[in-house]
Write the structure tokens for this entry.
Amino acid sequence: MTPGFNHVRTWIFDLDNTLYPASANLFALIDVRMGRFIADLLGVDAVEARRLQKQWFVDHGTTLNGLMLDHGVDPAPFLDYVHDITLDRIGPDPMLAEAISALPGRKLVFTNADADYARRVLDKRGLADCFEAVFDIHDCVYRPKPELAGYEGLCQRYDVDPASALMVEDMARNLKPAKQLGMATVWVNNGSEHGHAEACPSFIDLEISDVSDWLTGI
């Protein structure tokens, strides 16, 4: 076990660009569909749609959160539309599945995506049986990471003691609330878009580049 993590009994993993390599770039496919949704909704061209999409992501944690706040968008149709992508870019990782299963204690997924999409990704990666549950954007009542409420909601629902939990995440800023609650933190620094934003050693206990390499190494 990595020094300093022997106390961990609940392992919380982000999904996108964490439980599969960022090089798969599934978000490029999701980005296209987000852009189309915004362009159709607001009657703007693709360039303006992308600008708005990225601005909402930076300002509000997710594009969806910005759409809901600024335009009252119903989240369910949006989530269904943008996650309707093929998953041909990812495949099974038996070594990762074995390593996660071997971790002592409980394993959860915490994602700003929705659970249906998350389960499709987990199935494609061969990880579906590794996790107790998926805590998704619906469970957060559409208050995405890094809003503290979602982390508190996850801990309350699954009776997680933050002092014995660890969070693994590719977006550095999403680790700040986890550390605030008392969790150990691992930043997957793998080149994810905006992954470096607000990165600070004060709330990052360990920096890695690949979850599979890290876990199979310990």
About this structure: Strands lie at 10-13, 106-110, 133-135, 165-169, 184-188, 206-208.
